[in-house]
Design a protein that fits this description.
Chains A, B: This is Glutathione S-transferase N-terminal domain-containing protein. Chains A, B: Homodimer. The structure is a homodimer. The first copy, chain A, is of the alpha+beta class. Chain A folds into two domains: 2-76, Glutaredoxin (3-Layer(aba) Sandwich); 87-204, Glutathione S-transferase Yfyf (Class Pi), Chain A, domain 2, CATH 1.20.1050.10. Helices cover 48% and strands 7% of the residues of chain A. Chain A has seven helices and four strands; from the N terminus they run E-H-E-H-E-E-H-H-H-H-H. Chain A has helices at 10-22, 41-44, 66-76, 87-113, 136-157, 168-180, 192-201, and strands at residues 2-5, 27-30, 54-56, 62-64. The first copy, chain A, has a four-stranded mixed β-sheet, with helices on one face.
Chain lengths: 209, 209
């Protein structure tokens, strides 16, 4: 198996962190997003959407989408489950993970893609000739700050994002918080529960993946 | 168990169609999105994000996010699997389902929320005081048309969205195609494979759910 990814990209980091938690090692092939290698024919033959990461199985099947790749490894190596252990915990982890993607990751991507010179004319990941919309920058910031407030509220009740166990939702949230530093947003100093949670997750070996 | 939902909303329809495929009946509670009932305290106590659908379990636990709710039922009633039957089919279905959400559903929501008078000042679902950004309308249309092209390409290879079996990805795609009619976009007449697929799915009893 091979993982097409990029050491900088937050979604690729989510997969690497997941694999590290599972103790799985894979051949990694770097694809340079800034140079647009993800939009060239070689990579598009693996994923016509031009998005990283992509997992190529031994039989040549290519699986894109971070969560699909992580689920594949959860299925083939179920020890140390990161997607939950019963119907209720699985549903809650899926719910929280999606909340972080929609409310945290997408607004950050909007801020970055519609402001960074590196992505001029590439305001949607995986596509060419999409002009930036500058109004998405303040909208993204407002959405992300609301997400941070909700995260703080959630972590007043839970030790980890989806309850008492570390899960894939913590991986997503942790990578999203680090990604926020790209657009110069940090956890507000008043968000004590989020800071405590972050300081706990950052000590895991997988945080270096 | 109770399902908080809305007969008009595409995500609620995805859950109803999933339940119909599984032969599960649930108590349904309607929440009027146009009137903003989803932004009132009663509903926000079930889901602080203000989004439908929400499943309330017997113990009072509330699960939001369409896919989390569907997965819950897949877990408690695994017969007739709609999320796949092995690691590879599960990963491919998850991948395709997410592609349809990100590339199909989100652009449509952008078009609708940034143009419809019913959602003035509510340009992001579940939130108040978010102004429309009119440039998102042509961007959303361009993204959605690209999605339709990719869907047609996919259906030249596969009978169903993720392979030879009907899955939750077909439910998502079918509800997205019907949702597109809200913003007056139809399957192009040249997309023969998509039309054949649609005409097959629309005859399933669950399409009426």
């Amino acid at each position: 198996m091979k993982l097409y990814e990029n050491t900088q990209a937050p979604n690729a980091r989510r997969v690497r962190m997941f694999l590290a938690e599972k103790g799985i090692e894979l051949e990694s092939i770097q694809v340079d997003i800034i140079k647009g290698e993800n939009l060239q024919a070689d990579f598009l033959s693996k994923n016509p959407r031009g998005l990283l990461p992509v997992l190529e199985l031994e039989d040549g099947t290519c699986i894109d989408e971070t969560m699909a790749i992580c689920r594949y490894f959860e299925d083939i190596q179920p020890e140390n489950p990161l997607f939950g252990h019963d119907a209720k915990s699985k549903a809650l982890i899926e719910s929280k993970n999606r909340q972080i993607e929609f409310d945290g990751l997408l607004p950050l991507a909007d801020i970055l893609r519609n402001s960074a010179p590196n992505f001029a004319n590439r305001a949607i990941a995986g596509r060419e000739n999409v002009q930036a919309i500058s109004e998405l920058i303040p909208r993204g910031k407002s959405s992300f700050l609301e997400f941070l407030n909700r995260l703080e509220q959630l972590l007043t009740q839970n030790e980890y994002i989806a309850g008492e166990y570390f899960s894939v939702a913590d991986i997503t949230a942790f990578c999203v918080i680090d990604f926020a530093s790209w657009v110069k947003i940090e956890i507000p100093a008043t968000h004590c529960n989020t800071i405590t949670w972050y300081n706990k997750v950052v000590t895991r070996a997988s945080a270096l993946a």
